[in-house]
Amino acid sequence: MITTSQHRSTDIVRAVVTPGSGQVLIGRNTECTSLDQLLAAVRDRQSQVMVVRGEPGVGKSALLQYLLASAADFRVVRAVGVESEMELPFAALHQLCIPMQGQLSELPGPQSKALGMAFGLVDGRVLDRFLVGLGVLTLWSQFAEQQPLLCVVDDAQWLDQASAEVLAFVARRLLADPVGLVFSAREPPQALTGFPELTVGGLSERDARVLLGATAEVAVDARIRDRVVAEAQGNPLALLEWQRGLTMSNAAGGFTLPVLPVTAPLSRRIEEGYRLQLEQLPAETQLFLLVAAAEPLGDSSIVTRASALLGVPADAVVPAIDAGLIEIAGAVRFRHPLVRSAAYQSASLDDRTRAHQALADVMDPSDDPDRRAWHLAQATPGRDEDVALELERSAKRAERRGGLAAAAAFWERAMALTVDPEQRRQRTLAAATVLQQAGRFKASLKLLASLDDLTLSGLDQARVSLLRGQIAYASGEGAEAAGLLLQAAKGFEPVDIRIARAIYLQAIILACFAGRLASGPDLTEVARAAGAAPPAPAPGALADLLLDGFARLVTDGPAAAAPLLVRANQGFRSGTVSPREEFEVLGVACAAASVVWQDENWHEFSLRYVAVVRNAGALTILSQALNSLAFVHLLEGHLNAAASAIAEAQAINEVTGSEYVPYVGLYLVALRGHEAEASAQIRATVERARARGQGLVVRFALSAMATLGNSLGRYDLALAAAEEADEQGLDWWSHLMLPELIEAAVRNGTPERATDALERLAESATASGTDWAEGTLARSRALLQSGQTAEDLYRQAIECLDRTSLRTELARARLLYGEWLRRERRPREAREQLRAAHDMFTTIGAAGFAERTRIELTATGEQASERAVQTSVDLTARETQVCRLAADGATNAEIAARLFISVHTVDYHLRKAFVKLGIRSRRQLSGSLQKIH
Questions:
Q1: Residue range 505-544, pLDDT digits in tens
Q2: CA nearest neighbour of 846 among 700, 673, 710
Q3: Torsion over CA of 280, 285, 289 and 294, rounded to 10 degrees?
Q4: Most buried residue, 567, 570, 575, 624, by CB count within 10 Å?
Q5: Fold held by 9-199
Q6: Is 69 exposed, middle or buried (0-12, 13-18, 19+ CB in 10 A)?
Q7: Domain 769-869 - what CATH class?
Q8: In terms of pTM, does the model score above 0.85?
Q9: What b/e string do you get for 516-545 counting C-beta neighbours within 10 Å, with b at 16 or more?
Q10: Taking the CB of residue 655, how many other CB atoms lie within 10 A of it?
């Protein structure tokens, strides 16, 4: 049975009866079945996401109405995208989360704080929008525990960018929660592409005739019916709207039927139809509709008061209600977005300006200052500093909430209204900065380009160079970044040496990252410029010690740099570092600890680095911190812990779209001896890194290949990779790669190719003098010696490394000593060293080195079990990540936060993994991890 309405044609489009009765919308059986299946899956605790896509008027909203009517057993939250709200951060997301606001306090602290900031409930700045997404994911998961949750977003093409990005994040992380997320859109925003789509096309000619016949209030001449059906192209709204004004006379002949040419876009023709309807209304009613269209929230009180200011009487709204164009029930709601569009676009510029001014005049500045500022801006045709200042304040508030897209819009509009040219330049730079922070690099560069024809001060030129350098690095163009930052640092020198030195440190980091692939100044040139910079105003600051130390390392060598870097490390160990300094330079301190061979400091600093940036919610930086921690874990022989850190870093990169490569993962697969997997990953990484100017990543990848070759006894492969890595030039981690080259050259029968590498390794290790440095140097020197000298060096290496926590390095020293003893025809002593090395490699999970050791043991006459590492179990990547973190002792809530999934999804993956592993509890995971590659 089809229900009809004489007052609202959209009710006819819905034509919905009791869900589950088998009766659906005219011509929409397939679409309704898809929606029924979505709800059934959610009831079965399988999260579902769908984008209902189609042109205006095709019936998307009707399908959503059917969905809502079918979800009586669900908790339902709704939001509608509004075109004029697209620049207001988290506007749509807030609509969806208002019913759950009371549960914010139950979220983990960082998530609760991030959501509170995003919604303006607490002061502060959202550091990372992905933390907001994680908070929404957790909130929805908790909200759906007792009853399935259905989230519906209509007109998603008009979502504000912040909401669209967070909703896309949540949609990709849903899995085992009873949550359905359905969007409708003409063309979904970029953030919502790639999700399952339900494309809604026009009705068939047969169904169009049925709908037209069921809704026409007068008899329609067959020729007119055929014309309407043809021109509507199956669009239900077009069918309903075009017959709406028919009278008995024109229904018979149709000579006065108002239509646009068939070639006009359908949405334009529908909107034109609405415009023609609007023209029939009294002028005062049209003005009321204009004010309502300009006010995105539809607050009836604000619209009524603003209309009154324009002289519109209270009863002027009645004709619009009678015409079915709007309804008022606490808020003014248009029958269709195209009615709103027609009401606004058909008005004169003067009337629009008056409407926005009236809305601004009736809004309380303390209640919603940002929306008021936006109305003022729209009401201001020329430049006005007072309005520009209001917009600037709104921009800063949006920045604090994490609404960077909104902040940029406010800044750009403020820029356009600014009278003073210098102030306009500053606001242009502010807008470009916010756009860069939001990841909208092309838009930022476009604004920066608009400054090229203006006379910029030296400081402004430096700011432009700084922004361009940061964009170059963040967008993967690492080859240019250091040179741009070098220009920026020089520009800041006369103005603020503190800022200049901070930029010099960034420039050195990026020059190191680019390596030989830098298209501008190389690391040596950048280091020389940094070394020549004026001294810090307060000598002894840790950042300044790090800058001077790394500059000296490049220009003067390890002996000159070590005292400065050691002093910096001591400062970080003292516990007197400010939180800001920890956040800004603790990552550089990790690198400093590795440069001076301080393994304990490297471990401690990496743990602190991870904790600091995790608590701050700085996800992109967290990926780098986890990479540093994973490297330490590999040296210590904790491969599973390293795998957990790498898995979390990869999850972050997947979520954020970061170009940062967790290159330590290459060492992990190399140590595990997975030749095919490691080789494929390494080659792909080298190719990608070279294309992006990431020379350091190329070096690490090639060094991982050298490790793989040495572990498998493929010394020709190891030597070729190590020498190619060495050709990449100087960087902070060169000393960690030299031992691979030395071992490969000696084992390849070409010890002369190791001489220069050994000299450089000795220079670095001697400057430090730690057990790690002396043990590594002694192990490498022993390879080039013979007789008692070699034996003394091997023993020294083992003694030194045994005093460290670096199990992988100690096992390699025992392997080399055992191999030397076997060649010296001392099998009993060789077996002792090789047996210890084999046990260590097997326990660690370093399958390649374990096999190399087993072969040596066999040559001494002892039989060792072949590759004691167990056969792998076919877990998915996500199951593997979850299991590793669970085995490390992380709770389900902690795992969910680290991998950006819900707690229910963690439990889902663990249950599946337990079945595959043949275990029943988390306590058994540690013993099963060797099965997981």
A1: 999 988 888 888 888 888 899 999 999 999 877 766 888 9
A2: 673
A3: 120
A4: 624
A5: Rossmann fold (3.40.50)
A6: middle
A7: mainly alpha
A8: no
A9: bbbebbbbebbbebbbebeebeeeebbbbb
A10: 20
